Amino acid sequence: MSASAAETSAVKPDEGPRASVQFRQDANGLDVAILKDPRGFSAQVHLHGGQITAWKNAQGEDLLFVSSKAVFKPPKPIRGGMLICFPQFSNFGMIEQHGFACNQSWAVDPDPSPLPPAGDDRASLDLILKQSNSDKQKIWSYSFEFRLRVVLGPEGELGLTARVRNTDPKAFTFTIAFQTYFSVRDISEVRVEGLETTDYLDGLQNSQLFTEQGDALTFEGEVDRVYVNTPTTIAVIDHEKKTTFVLKKDGFPDAGVWNPWEKKAKALTDLEDGEYKHMICVQPGSIQKPITLKPGEEWMGRLKILTVFSSYHSGRLDPMRVLSSFDSV
C-alpha cells in the first residue's frame, strides 16, 4: 500500500492541518504507520511487534528512546520505544522473555469496534494480533485476539487501548505490560513520582518485597523493580529538559521501573554502553497477579501519556488537565 493511498484524512484548501495516518516502509524494509496531529506531533508504529518506535513533539524532538544499536530485523524485538510484553512479563515462566507479541507481525484491524472513532483532531491506528487453532504457539497453546488502538491526540498526547479476547475453548492466564523507554538527558537528574509508600518487588534481590520509603525514585545505580497496586497517575520528571511525562493508566495496577546502569548495559548487545544515561524504562502493566480469561471473555487496559513543560513535581501539575485529557482515550 502506498503512503498516499493509505492517508486517512484529507485537507481541503480552506482548512488547516488535520490528523493523519500514513503507511510506508522504513529503511530496513519493515512496514510502519506514521501518525501526525494538527500541532506537529508525530508517532511511528512498527507492525513488527505492534511497537511504537518514535514519538516526537512539534519541534521534532524524540520523546521515546530507541537504542542506536537496536536490531530492526524480525524476529528480534526492537530495543526501545514502547514494547508490548504479552502473554508474559520478564523471563519468569516457560515463554521467551517478555512473551511473543513483541516479535510477531501485527495487522491493521479491519473491525476495531466497539471503540468509538478517534475524530478529525486525533490520528488513530487499530492493530490486531491473532492466534487461531491452526497456528498456536507450541509453548502457549491458546487461541486469542489482541487488539491495540494507538491514538495521537490534539495536544500530542499518546493514548493506547489494549484488548485481549479469549477465543479458545479453554481458560488462559497471562501477564501484560507496556515497556516504555522514555528519552531523558541525564538519568541521574530524573525523578519518578507517584510511587511513594508503594510496595515493590526488587529484581536485584530475588524479587523480595519492599516498600518505597522516599518521596520520589531517583537513580544512582541499576534499578529493576515492579511496583504493585500503584496509583493511576505516575510522573517521570526530567529536570535537565524541564519536561515531565505524566502517565495515566486504567487496568494496569502495577508499574515496572528499569535502568540497567553501566555494567548491565555493556552486557546488552543491542544497547550502546553509555546509552543507559539517556533512558528510563517505566512499564505500566498487570504483572504481579496474572489475568485469567474464560472462553469468550475480554480484558481491556488503557494508558495515556502527556508531556508537560515543567520542572515541578507531580503534585503541582494541573490535575484537571491530566484527568480531562484521559477521558478521550
Automatic annotation (TrEMBL):
Keywords: Isomerase. Gene3D superfamilies: 2.70.98.10. SUPFAM superfamilies: Galactose mutarotase-like (SSF74650). Transmembrane segments: none annotated. It comes from the Eukaryota. It catalyses: alpha-D-glucose 6-phosphate = beta-D-glucose 6-phosphate. GO terms for molecular function: carbohydrate binding; glucose-6-phosphate 1-epimerase activity. The keyword Isomerase applies. GO terms for cellular component: cytoplasm. The keyword Protein biosynthesis does not apply. One of its GO terms (biological process) is carbohydrate metabolic process. Its EC number is 5.1.3.15. Belongs to the glucose-6-phosphate 1-epimerase family. This is glucose-6-phosphate 1-epimerase.
